[in-house]
Amino acid sequence: MEETKFQEKLKDLTFEGNSFNILKQLEVILQSDPLIDEVGFLHPSQFAALNEETYGSANNAQNSENEMSSGNSIFWNRDHKLAISTEVLFPLYAAAKHAFEAADTQYKMLTNLPTNRGKSMDETAADSSQFSADFFENEVMMHSKALLLLSCDSATAWNSRKLVISKKQQSSPLMDELLFSSLILSYAPKSENAWSHRRWVVKTIAGTHPNMEKIVYKESELVEKLAEKSKMNYRAWYHRCWLVSYLTRSQVLEELMKSKKWAELHVADNCCFHYRLQLFLKLLESSISKHGQDVSMNSYPELCRVWKEELDWDKMLIKRYVGREALWGHRRFLSQCWVQRFGIAARDGADLHGDDFNVKDVIHNFMADEIQLLQSCLTIRDDDFEDWHTQAVLAAAYVLWLSKQIPHSGGVESLQKIKEEVGDLKALLIKLCPEKAPLWNGLIY
């Protein structure tokens, strides 16, 4: 009886009496199928074809339990997929917003939390003070779910869900939040609030969940799936980079292998290479000696092998995919760590030997490989495409950058060898990029 009175008051807050009924239909669907993993917004004309394809005939579609409107199709739900008609989006959003605000105000009043709602809302909710906090807690979660499904940028709704969940001791609500945020990301893969909420959930369950490795693995899979659908999704890749801090050393090595295939198919997308950079930094961090900032002597042979494999792999991609800036940027990171970490150790005479690997030779072998790569990339072939010219520009810029890095690592002889092989670097850069001649004159004396 009391719940009925509360729902009647919510109904008065909507712009149209039918809006609240539509909202209830949506919330019934969400409650009956908690495993919905994809949502879409369709024009009303598309529902007939969708139902006919699903159920075999238009008559069966109209008689289906998933047909939620007597006149026109509004919702469609099957196989954990949900479709919402664009015709009802505005009244549905208005009803969800008012229902959420009313429930949120009551919940905060009952839990003695400050609220910024107006006096009219307080007066409307005054007669409902006898309701328990549990009832309004469920109302907040239910209405915020519908609201965020329609407007994923409502920070107030996300924060209210955090408030409710943070007071629970069970882990199941947190796992439900991962499912819900995945649903939001299925149609809004670049939603900052959804990704931020997901990081809050992972951070909350970290250290208490018995199978944290599985959660991190699924998070990584989700990012890769959404990155495939939404190109240059920096928020998704930032989330994956953030997860690196929760990876063990073995997981880091596994992620390096897993992400390699994706990177090969998306060489123009710098996001994956930035992710691999974070993995290498994590690997380097896990190898740091407990007594200082230097890499542990026992870790050098393995690190050298991993870095050498990445350098060779990047070299192969540079030759295969001509003129890709992301590949050269990734090589700068690899080269800098190679020269500064392993080169300094070789210069200082550290006794770092592997099975077939002597770190004392790293600078010499590294520079020999780089010179060979640069010689092949600085040659501009005669064709109708500009890729080879771009490749030469990137290679020349890489030579300039490398010439600034080597002297700090004691590789003076290697630097002199580069100058002998490449020739006049300033003249080369001016020839390739005459429009940047003032820049080259300022950088090279």
UniProtKB/TrEMBL annotation:
Matching SUPFAM superfamilies: Protein prenylyltransferase (SSF48439)
Signal peptide (UniProt feature, chain positions): none
Record keyword Transferase present: yes
GO terms of molecular function: CAAX-protein geranylgeranyltransferase activity; protein farnesyltransferase activity
Cellular compartments per GO CC: CAAX-protein geranylgeranyltransferase complex; protein farnesyltransferase complex
The entry's keywords: Prenyltransferase, Repeat, Transferase
Taxonomy, superkingdom: Eukaryota
The keyword Transferase is assigned to this record: yes
Annotated Pfam families: PPTA
Family, similarity comment: Belongs to the protein prenyltransferase subunit alpha family.
Protein name per the record: Uncharacterized protein
Native organism taxonomy: Eukaryota, Viridiplantae, Streptophyta, Embryophyta, Tracheophyta
